[in-house]
Amino acid sequence: MKFFANAVSSAGLVAALTLGTAAQSFHAVFGSVSDITTLTDNFNKAFGRINSDNVDHLGPSVATDLQTLSNTITTEVSNVFLGASDPGPLTDREASEVVPAWQQYTQSSINLIQTLLDDHSLFVAHGLVENIIKSIRSYRASVLEYAGVLKASAESRSDEIMEDLQNLEDQFEALVQVYERT
Questions:
Q1: Identity of the highest mean pLDDT range in 25-29, 86-90, 100-104, 151-155
Q2: Judging by beta carbons within 10 Å of its beta carbon (0-12, 13-18, 19+), is residue 90 exposed, middle or buried?
Q3: Which residue in 10, 26, 101, 129 has the fewest CB atoms around it within 10 Å?
Q4: What is the Cα–Cα distance from 95 to 160, expressed in whole angstroms?
Q5: pTM for this one?
Q6: What is the DSSP string of 16-84?
């Protein structure tokens, strides 16, 4: 009887640890999406303040800032999805909570892309496009990688993730085409 009691309490402990790990994994994924959204919004605000009066001072940081954003997203892929804390598949309920955060992120990225499109002629006039386009390509690649691992983690909602990604990818393509023509 004592063995059975120990086995039951051990099974309970394993179940509790598993639930704790799943919750921690969900929070890691949700936090990651929220963090890159906040960073994207912050850079968009900074880029939005660039004008003809301050482009010589602030413009050169755009390429560096985009590269920082790209590196941060790549680090999130490694730390949250591919590292020792790999969240594994999220439950349907967890995935349904992550999708709105992802949608907010894609909208933030679209807003950033729009700002870069709005500032394009200013960047051309000040010779900044070459470095910026390199960083745009890097940013685009990191977002695609992030979407891929998020889709695998939130598999039950992968169609929604990919739909939002397709819209974002269309915006990236338009941005790249504009910047490459100069």
A1: 100-104
A2: buried
A3: 10
A4: 10
A5: 0.86
A6: HHHHHHHHHHHHHHHHHHHHHHHHHHHHHHHHHT--TTTHHHHTTHHHHHHHHHHHHHHHHIIIIIIST
